[in-house]
Amino acid sequence: MTKKLYISTYGCQMNVYDSARMADIMAPLGYSLTEKPEGADMAILNTCHIREKASEKTFSELGRLRNMRSKKLDRDDGDMVIAVAGCVAQAEGAEIMKRAPYVNMVFGPQSYHLLPQMVAQASRGAGHILETDFPVDAKFDHLPSEAIDTNLSAFLTVQEGCDKFCAFCVVPYTRGAEFSRPVAHIVAEAKRMIAGGTQEITLLGQNVNAYHGTLESGASATLAELIYRLAELDGLKRLRYTTSHPLEMSEDLLRAHRDVDVLMPYLHLPVQAGSDRILDAMNRRHTAQEYRAIIDKLRDYRPDLALSGDFIVGFPGESDKDFEDTLQLVRDVDYAQAYSFKYSPRPGTPAAGLDGQMIPEDVKSERLAELQRLLNAQQLAYNQSFVGREIKVLLEREGKRDGQLVGRSPYMQSVFVPSPSHRIGRIATVIVQEGNANSLRGELKPGNVADAA
Ligand code: 5AD
Ligand code: SF4
């Protein structure tokens, strides 16, 4: 009898990757994934703690699961094991147990390889299970070898944790110190992914460009060196990495953007703010000018590089002038896309203690709206600049409309084209007809590779 496993994933790509691995680990125990929580035998919330809104969702979602479990028990349809995983679990494990005592297990991002044991314990009625230690031995060593992502475009975690301690950020506390997987493990996983059909790999890490995994020789490799190794693998068509810190954009990595064909011309390089005073208060350890210099160099090496970033408005003490500096930096860089957030104080982080300097909510909202107007205008202009051009699109899946496929351009744009579904998995040449705020629309170039299929 197969059991139904529901996993709800919040937050970053790392959580998406972790959720997929949890599903893989649970499969040998007879659990198969279900889309809906109703009737599930086990429900896992893989949570995000990065901003207050994200972490509040955990508790409202738990309330819903509790109702579903009661209904299931009323129907005499068995119990539902409720688990909270991820960064809220790591940061607020005890609090969850207190506020939601019906939760069976709470475990942090470094503990999901212990799932089989925890499930066995829960089924013996062993009470609450709280597993939020950071084990020294990496969870990766416990992954079943078949537990890999083989989607056409797939994620591969190469690095986890962060030693940067930006003053606003919980990641160093929830994900712990930086850890890099050994090169050989990553290459082996990439090979299995490619054998399973993956064409595009995105290397994941909270601080991915600080990667320093060990080589077979015992020396340590930079992210650029890892990229060169992976670029040699037959069948790998596209390579990306995320998320990066400006301090770690070493010369060899900048050059890889010029020299490695499969490395896609897209980079997510958060700067957070454009004022040196605020960057300093954020403990970012670089100036706005240094960030501009990195961007200039990247564009020298790879003129068509699409840039993305993250921004926080309303960091404690941010003046109108500081905010204007952020707008100016955005104007100077000209982003292809970006994410922006209102500062959200996170318990235990240094910035949360800057009580006297908190920015009123309405000021934060106004600044966010203004920044987003600028970023959205840049994104639209960027997308519109593609009209009439030919781009290569990895056709990944069916679109919303009948007879439509969607894929990504090298620059990370979603591209919709009319095409029969047998072309999924092809890298097709598309002539762009329309550039919208969040996507491109086009048609397959007659006679391109996909057409021959
Ligand atoms: N408040 C608002 N935004 C935050 N981020 C991280 N911590 C906070 C916070 N406390 C944003 C940063 C980071 C992205 C993942 O989330 O911009 O790059
Ligand atoms: Fe958080 Fe800064 Fe580390 Fe990014 S670099 S995860 S923002 S502490």
Which short descriptors sum up this protein?
453 residues, alpha/beta, Rossmann fold, pyruvate-formate lyase- activating enzyme, OB fold (Dihydrolipoamide Acetyltransferase, E2P), 3 domains, six-stranded parallel sheet, binds 5'-deoxyadenosine, binds iron/sulfur cluster
Brief sketch in words of this structure:
It is found in: Cytoplasm. The chain has 453 residues and is α/β, with parallel strands linked by helices.
How far apart the termini lie comes to 40 Å
Ligands in the structure?
5'-deoxyadenosine, iron/sulfur cluster
**What is the name of the CATH class of the largest domain?**
Alpha Beta
Beta-strand percentage range: 15-25%
Task: Give structural notes.
By secondary structure, this protein is α/β, with parallel strands linked by helices. The chain is built from 13 helices and 19 strands. The strands form 5 sheets. The protein has a 6-stranded parallel sheet with strand order 2-1-3-4-5-6, sandwiched between helices. Strands 15-16-17-19-18 form a 5-stranded mixed β-barrel. It has a 3-stranded parallel sheet with strand order 7-10-11, with helices on both faces. β10 (200-204), α7 (223-231) and β11 (238-242) form a beta-alpha-beta unit. α7 (223-231) packs parallel to α8, α8 runs parallel beside α10 and α11 (320-333) packs parallel to α12 (361-384). It starts with a strand and ends with a helix. The site of iron/sulfur cluster has 10 residues, from α5. It catalyses: N(6)-dimethylallyladenosine(37) in tRNA + (sulfur carrier)-SH + AH2 + 2 S-adenosyl-L-methionine = 2-methylsulfanyl-N(6)-dimethylallyladenosine(37) in tRNA + (sulfur carrier)-H + 5'-deoxyadenosine + L-methionine + A + S-adenosyl-L-homocysteine + 2 H(+).
